[in-house]
Design goal:
Mean pLDDT: 86
Distance between the termini: 84 Å
Strand content: 25-35%
Order of helices and strands: EEEEHHHHEEEEEEEEEEE
Shape: extended
Structural class: alpha+beta
Largest sheet: 6 strands, antiparallel
Helix content: 10-25%
């Protein structure tokens, strides 16, 4: 294994070298000369990995603006790993053909785009999402004092709260962006009243709905403060809508362990007074 140090990063196969990216680093290795016969299990895992990777690319495309503004270099790898977990949580009987909607899509909830800081580190109150499938979705903010509600950087003069919702057709390859109005607040004394955003969700039937929130700060020149610890974004919620309801994923119950003392056994009785 070797590191790519050129300005231009390569991907794929070139001659007898294979170029690839792992954990934010660009690497190169020699092509393997050995030929392996893949097992059926390996083929099934490869197919499901492809499904997870496709889902990850689609989500990144939907939230491209957020990925560019907030995500760190390892976000792609973390997101792919998350989708692999989701696919693998699906029924074992479907192994080899499981998709995102067969698993627990709620595993996306709470995922941070920037590993250097979290939304909770910068925001002292918690937004809430409320979904009334399949018609409406609500995002609710409590009343708060502006000066005390944020962990702002020293040069921060303005805070910007961004919200976005995407509807994804998994295992298909398309999605729909729904832009929500930004909340822009000067960082000074004052009170922000509670707020509710109501969003109709026509066309979400059979789709996965993901809500994301981001926060960043601007300086006195109205420029974004680019310090990586002064910006954050998190997936607030992720649900699968089917037949007008949110699908609640059910994990299979683990097999019951029977204690030897609980096993029914035939015992030979005593005879008294004989």
């Amino acid at each position: 294994m070797a590191f790519q140090r050129s300005i231009f990063k390569l991907f794929g196969k070139l001659g007898d070298k294979v170029f690839y990216r792992r954990k934010g680093k660009y690497l190169a290795r020699g092509e393997s000369k050995k030929k392996y016969k893949r097992s059926e299990g390996s083929k099934q895992s490869s197919k499901e990995f492809g499904s997870a990777s496709t889902a990850g690319r689609l989500l990144r495309k939907g939230f491209a603006k957020y990925v560019k503004r907030f995500a760190d270099n390892e976000f792609i790898d973390r997101l792919t790993s998350k989708f692999i977990r989701i696919v693998n949580s699906g029924p074992i009987a479907l192994k080899g053909s499981r998709h995102v909607t067969d698993g627990d899509v709620a595993l996306l909830k709470g995922m941070e785009m920037n590993s250097y800081t979290s939304l909770d580190n910068l925001l002292k109150f918690k937004p809430k999402t409320r979904i009334e499938a399949p018609d409406k979705i609500y995002i609710e903010l409590p009343e708060f004092m502006i000066q005390n509600a944020f962990n702002a950087p020293l040069k921060g003069m303005v805070v910007v709260l961004e919200f976005m919702c995407c509807v994804f057709d998994f295992p298909g390859k398309w999605g729909e962006k729904i832009w929500l109005e930004d909340i822009v607040l000067p960082l000074k004394d004052g009170r922000c009243p509670n707020a509710t955003l109501e969003l109709p969700m026509d066309g979400a039937e059979g789709k996965v709905l993901v809500i994301c929130m981001g926060i960043y700060f601007r300086d006195s020149d109205n420029r974004q403060i680019l310090n990586r610890k002064s910006k954050a974004a998190k997936l607030l919620d992720a649900v699968y809508l089917r037949e007008g309801k949110i699908v609640q994923f059910q994990y299979p119950e683990p097999p019951k362990v029977i204690d030897e003392d609980d096993e029914p056994v035939k015992r030979i009785p005593w005879k008294f007074g004989t």
